[in-house]
Amino acid sequence: MASEFAAGNYRFIPAVFQYSSGAQANAGYEIERVRFDRLVPLAEGFARIAAYIKDAGRPLTSFCACELRSPAAFTEDGFRAFNQHYVKTLAEWGLFDGTINPVARSNVCPEIDPPSEPSFYAFSFTRPSTSTSPSFVIAGGAEARSGTASYPDRIVCYRDLSPGAWREKVRFTAGEMERRLAEFSFGWQETTAVQAYTVHDIHPVMADELVRRGATRSGLTWHFCRPPVVDLEYEMDCRRVLREVVI
């Protein structure tokens, strides 16, 4: 169930130490999404994000989501090490208490022309608003079941890219997006953007697994990227954000 993060004026879906499964602005606030025109390395990105949020008159605790790009898919141990480094800044900002992390995130790996180091693609934060329209960001999710087992034990159709297995991967991931949306009492009909991340052809399953279930009501943005861990093949995220800018 969603938990309140009063310091940021949003609530979130608890998940794992490195990120939450989604964030929704509280009444009287909205989420603003800011995309960098060019990828910004992690340390520089955090500094630019802090400056932008402060210039908007908001506390750093209003930081509620981000989208990262990494050089290549991590091993399971490598992903854990990266995440332990990433959350240090969140702790300094008052967002991570060592266990609970309210910040939603996606972290994917461009197949062509990747960055040389983990970098920011976009970030989101809450700000006061007179609008009564809700806003939220659902974190990236791939075809891995929840739990504490290793990825090979949790990945749907592990190392299987047959047509049937590919359909199952996409179906599972779309279903996970629906589960997270439902935590905020929303569905696809409330989204303003949906993103997919894969290097595989999604067209054979797109009509049945995405279009018919309503996931493409605002179109679909396909990024030619891999999910962040080796052997994951398909990831999605979605959002309802009415204020988006590029800097």
**In this structure, how is the largest beta sheet organized?**
7 strands, mixed
Count of the domains: 1
Morphology = globular
CATH superfamily: RutC-like
The main sheet orders its strands as 1-2-3-8-12-9-10
Radius of gyration: 17 Å
Q: How many beta-strand runs?
A: 13
Helix content: 25-40%
Average of per-residue pLDDT values? 97
Q: What is the CA-CA span between the terminal residues?
A: 34 Å
Low-confidence stretches: none
Q: What fold name stands as the CATH topology?
A: 60s Ribosomal Protein L30, Chain: A
Describe the protein's architecture and organization.
The structure is a single chain. With 247 residues, the chain is α+β, with helices and mostly antiparallel strands. It contains 5 helices and 13 strands. The strands form 2 sheets. Strands 1-2-3-8-12-9-10 form a 7-stranded mixed sheet, covered by helices on one side. Helix 4 (163-183) runs parallel beside helix 5. The N and C termini lie far apart (34 Å).
Topology:
Elements: E1 3-5, E2 10-12, E3 22-25, E4 29-41, H1 42-55, E5 63-69, H2 76-92, E6 104-110, E7 119-128, E8 136-142, H3 151-154, H4 163-183, E9 193-197, H5 203-211, E10 221-223, E11 225-226, E12 235-240, E13 243-246
Parallel strand pairs: 4-13, 5-6, 9-10
Antiparallel strand pairs: 1-2, 2-3, 3-8, 4-7, 5-7, 6-11, 8-12, 9-12
Helix pairs in contact: 4-5
Question: How would you summarize this macromolecular structure in one to three sentences?
Answer:
The protein has 247 residues and is α+β, with helices and mostly antiparallel strands. The chain has helices at 42-55, 76-92, 151-154, 163-183, 203-211; strands at 3-5, 10-12, 22-25, 29-41, 63-69, 104-110, 119-128, 136-142, 193-197, 221-223, 225-226, 235-240, 243-246.
